[in-house]
């Protein structure tokens, strides 16, 4: 084939000469690189570098620990109790964090062997929760799991109507009393969700009256100045099958000065003792022989400057209907009051018992005279003050007739 000859650069060979080894300065550089690579690879070891290769593989291996969360990720209508549990296989749980949509943590308990975690209380209803859990295997390698679930929205609910009111100042006999809107068939679950604490601290125990009322009190009257906190964590509590609480509320109240008044029905007197000192001895009239006054410790639960009292409402038929009873303070659910009396003669007080079971003090019609004994006692009393009746020819008042659990021995109260 005709054409121009192929030109070659000087010093460049063709054919087999291109397969010869590198010589000169370039060869020295290549040798140095190979030596460095050999040294870093551990090529001088007796096992040919295999030991380090195995260590690297183990360090990168996945953790053998496995985290399991019940309920499954994305579950809805989850039960508020008994459904949430976190467990670990081939390892131990190191961290379990459960939070609601607002970031509030759920308190839980980790088993001593690190194999499981469960919440210590029920969950709230209709709430989305996040679970973040970490477990470690025997080699210290971690495995994590993140899930979410949503608790059920109940069709039927209950609430607890409580006394005393939030922020109030009360007498030393004031219990915490909660009346439920539905009868409770799992009292243990409901009581566990309610916490009552005091400063200064004192043991406080709850007692059920029937299936819809739960009262809390200490063994003896509160100390003056005590601050009490009531936490109602009822949201999500299954109080009866298919019926759930819907309250998360904190109530606080303060115990004021100590005032205990003792009515002696036979002597027709009421001695008022404040902070251990008698400050007043008031002449009274108690229940007549046909309608005696209960004996026992009674707590003022309501105060009315003027109220109506009708015998029909408490089993006395049409014997009386007084539309303007002054300075009335309720002592029992059944209708026992300590109140002002303007219709009896002044000589009645301190000398005879003529009432229908109440404790009467001399008063003026319309509650307008601040100098009467009834007005003084009304103005000097707090809801929660104690009125003790003795020497009446009647039985002791029942503990659940009003806020009068003090008439139950402590040994019975804590059963």
UniProtKB/TrEMBL annotation:
Keyword hit for Chloroplast: no
Keyword Ribonucleoprotein (UniProt): no
Keyword annotations from UniProtKB, A to Z: Acyltransferase, Cell shape, Cell wall biogenesis/degradation, Peptidoglycan synthesis, Transferase
Pfam families registered for this protein in UniProt: Big_10, YkuD
Domain L,D-TPase catalytic, chain residue ranges per copy: 259-390
Pathway recorded for this protein: Cell wall biogenesis; peptidoglycan biosynthesis
Top-level taxon in the UniProt lineage: Bacteria
Catalytic residues, chain numbering: 339, 358
Region (Disordered): 1-22
UniProt name for this protein: Ig-like domain-containing protein
Originating species: Streptomyces pyxinae
Biological classification of the source: Bacteria, Bacillati, Actinomycetota, Actinomycetes, Kitasatosporales
């Amino acid at each position: 084939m005709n054409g121009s000859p192929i030109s070659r650069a000087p010093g460049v060979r063709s054919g087999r000469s291109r397969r010869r080894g590198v010589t000169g300065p370039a060869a020295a550089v290549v040798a140095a690189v190979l030596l460095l690579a050999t040294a870093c690879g551990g090529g001088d070891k007796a096992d040919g570098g295999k030991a380090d290769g195995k260590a690297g593989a183990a360090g990168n291996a996945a953790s053998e620990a496995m985290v399991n969360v019940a309920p499954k990720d994305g579950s809805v209508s989850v039960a508020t109790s008994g459904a949430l549990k976190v467990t670990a296989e081939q390892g131990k749980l190191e961290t379990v964090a459960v939070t609601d949509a607002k970031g509030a943590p759920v308190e839980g308990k980790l088993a001593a062997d690190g194999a499981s975690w469960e919440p210590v209380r029920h969950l709230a209803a209709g709430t989305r929760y996040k679970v973040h859990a970490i477990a470690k295997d025997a080699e210290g390698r971690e495995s994590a799991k993140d899930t979410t679930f949503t608790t059920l929205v109940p069709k039927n609910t209950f609430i607890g109507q409580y006394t005393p009111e939030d922020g109030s100042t009360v007498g030393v006999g004031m219990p915490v009393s909660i009346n439920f809107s539905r009868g409770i068939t799992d009292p243990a679950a409901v009581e566990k969700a309610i916490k009552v604490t005091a400063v200064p601290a004192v043991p406080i125990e709850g007692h059920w009256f029937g299936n819809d009322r739960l009262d809390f009190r200490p063994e003896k009257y509160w100390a003056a100045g005590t601050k009490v906190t009531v936490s109602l964590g009822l949201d999500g509590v299954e109080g009866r099958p298919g019926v759930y609480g819907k309250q998360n509320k904190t109530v606080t109240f303060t115990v004021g000065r100590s005032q205990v008044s003792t009515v002696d029905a036979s002597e027709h007197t009421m001695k008022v003792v404040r902070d251990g000192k008698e400050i007043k001895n008031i002449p009274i009239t108690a229940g007549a022989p046909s309608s005696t006054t209960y004996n026992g410790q009674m707590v003022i639960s309501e105060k009315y400057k003027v109220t109506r009292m009708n015998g029909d409402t408490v089993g006395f038929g049409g014997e009386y209907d007084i539309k303007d009873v002054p300075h009335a303070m309720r002592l029992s659910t059944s209708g026992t009051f300590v109140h002002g009396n303007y219709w009896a003669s002044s000589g009645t007080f301190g000398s005879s018992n003529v009432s229908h079971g109440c404790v009467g003090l001399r008063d003026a019609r319309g509650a307008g005279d601040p100098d009467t004994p009834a007005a003084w006692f009304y103005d000097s009393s707090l809801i929660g003050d104690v009125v003790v009746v003795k020497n009446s020819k009647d039985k002791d008042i029942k503990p659940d007739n009003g806020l009068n659990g003090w008439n139950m021995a402590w040994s019975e109260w804590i059963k």
